[in-house]
Design a protein that fits this description.
This protein has 210 residues and is of the alpha+beta class. Helix content is 27%, strand content 25%. Strands 1, 2, 3, 4, 5, 6, 7 and 8 form an 8-stranded mixed β-sheet that branches. A hairpin with a 2-residue loop joins β7 and β8. The longest helix has 18 residues. The N and C termini lie close together (6 Å).
Length: 210
């Protein structure tokens, strides 16, 4: 299941967040070659891991096997501060628009034969569940262009913000992807499970693990 971690409950997820930072480092530095963010302690943390960030963690048997971070577009975020060259025009901003960043899945949980691995589907479903509940309807994504078709197949309405550029070892394009209830229905259809993937937020004095 997916756990949503905010400034309100992050103290309950200290170990899980340490695992998440190390997973981010393993994927983005060791695999994708983002040498500019390499750290000697093997933890990938940046200036956007502040009180405004929303972290989403897939936790199984106490292990963080998937992670993603959401950033509000009305505050500094990756596209506005670091990857501005990926957007040819005006930056998309608004309370209904958040940036999807640092999506990563542990190597053993990836399934190259599917449109999206089960863990990846749950992470993406969590964004839509959370967004529909909180009045969010569009996400900004910096991604490999191969994702464009996948997102359309999952019933996101995708609009490129510019042309692809090389970031690390990969071609990267910035897009907005709008979603609605039909998007969530499609994700559930692909997953073969209509249940919600987001667990209730824990009380601040205890940690709930899936």
């Amino acid at each position: 299941m997916i756990h949503i971690v905010t400034s309100e409950n992050i103290n309950c997820y200290q170990d899980a967040m340490e695992q998440a930072y190390k997973l981010r480092h393993a994927v983005f530095v060791e695999e994708m070659g983002w040498e500019a963010i390499r750290r000697a302690d093997g933890r990938e943390i940046d200036q956007f891991d502040d009180a405004a960030a929303v972290h989403m963690l897939y936790i199984e048997d106490g292990r963080v096997l998937g992670y993603q971070r959401m950033l509000p577009s009305q505050r500094p975020h990756l596209l506005s501060e670091v990857l501005r060259h990926l957007c040819d025009g005006e930056l998309p901003r608004g309370p209904e628009i958040w940036e999807w960043t640092r999506y990563c899945v542990a190597q053993g949980c990836r399934d190259r034969g599917r449109m999206l691995s089960p863990v990846g589907n749950m992470l993406l479903s969590a964004i839509v569940e959370w967004g529909l509940e909180d009045g969010i309807s569009k996400i900004i994504i910096e991604m490999n262009p191969i994702w464009l078709l996948r997102l359309v197949q999952l019933h996101f309405r995708v609009a490129p913000l510019g042309i692809p550029h090389e970031v690390g070892k990969e071609s990267t394009v910035a897009v907005t992807a709008a979603f609605e209830a039909r998007t969530l229905a499609r994700l559930r259809e692909v997953r073969g499970d209509r249940r919600n993937v987001v667990v209730a937020r824990p009380q601040t004095n205890r940690l709930m693990l899936a």
